[in-house]
Write a structure and sequence with these properties.
Elements: E1 7-12, H1 17-29, E2 34-38, H2 46-52, H3 56-60, E3 63-65, H4 68-71, E4 77-81, E5 96-97, E6 111-115, H5 124-128, E7 132-135, H6 147-162, H7 178-193, H8 202-216, H9 220-239
Parallel strand pairs: 1-2, 1-6, 2-3, 4-6, 4-7, 5-7
Helix pairs in contact: 1-2, 1-6, 7-8, 7-9
């Protein structure tokens, strides 16, 4: 039985084929079937094959992608795991703890769990492609976790809290697609560009809206309404822009 048919684990440029094998095994342990790998294909490596044990089907069927954007293209939501917080001054790495992520069985869209490189994790640009960045609580003295351990802890959290023998009940409300959410951001970004804000504050404001939308888990109806409001706000911002502030 697949406990989490809408979960997809995405590994970005994993550096150890053995870790990839262990990750495939963890997916099998906790009812997740789909694995995606960004970067070189490690599936035929001896260590990947050995350490996947009885999860060869998950390993062998893993999708291989050239970049994270293409790996997330057909997903609805992406949650990025990272150990590096930017603190209160960073909006890109404004992390939520693992236990605050919602129940994945309550969401109808395809959810990507994104994990970075063993040595350096995910870049800010890669985190920016995701809707939410989260962290696994660890000791302050040593917050970094082995890749396969991190995947296992996250999947165990979901399995122990949300797995059920009952059939998964899907909501009648269609989840907002990635393209629909991006359209809202097009209007919001343009609006911010026309507001009387200092230039260095504009990318911060744009990122904060991305963080808020990423955590909202919008339905299609909600995002359609929000798009209309954002479009009107954008038009008002342009109409009221001080002509003296415009560059000739």
């Amino acid at each position: 039985m697949v406990e989490f048919p809408n979960l997809i684990v995405v590994l970005v440029e994993p550096e150890s084929p053995g870790n990839v094998g262990f990750v495939a095994r963890s997916l099998a342990n906790f009812g997740v079937k789909e694995l995606r790998i960004v970067g070189p294909d490690p599936r035929e490596d001896y260590q990947a094959q050995i350490f996947s044990v009885h999860a060869h089907d998950i390993l062998d069927s893993a999708g291989i992608f050239k970049d994270l954007g293409s790996a997330l293209e057909d997903t609805d939501v992406a949650w990025a795991a990272t150990a590096r917080s930017g603190g209160n001054l960073s909006v890109t790495r404004a992390l939520v703890p693992l236990h605050e992520l919602p129940d994945p069985t309550s969401l109808d869209g395809r959810i990507a769990l994104v994990f970075g490189r063993e040595s350096s994790g995910l870049t800010n640009e890669e985190i920016g492609l995701c809707d939410v960045s989260f962290t696994i609580p660890t000791a302050d003295e040593y917050p970094s976790m082995n890749l396969s351990h991190a995947v296992t802890v996250v999947l165990y959290h979901f399995f122990s809290n949300y797995a059920s023998e009952e059939p998964r009940r899907t909501s009648k409300a269609r989840p907002a697609t990635r393209k629909e959410r991006e359209q809202v951001l097009v209007f919001l970004d343009d609006m911010i560009d026309h507001l009387d804000l200092k230039d260095f504050r504009k990318p911060i404001a744009k990122q904060i809206f991305r963080n808020l939308l990423g955590r909202a888990y919008l339905t299609g109806r909600e995002v359609t309404t929000l798009t209309g409001v954002a479009s009107k706000l954008n038009r008002l911002a342009k109409e009221h822009e001080d002509p003296g502030d415009q560059t000739p």
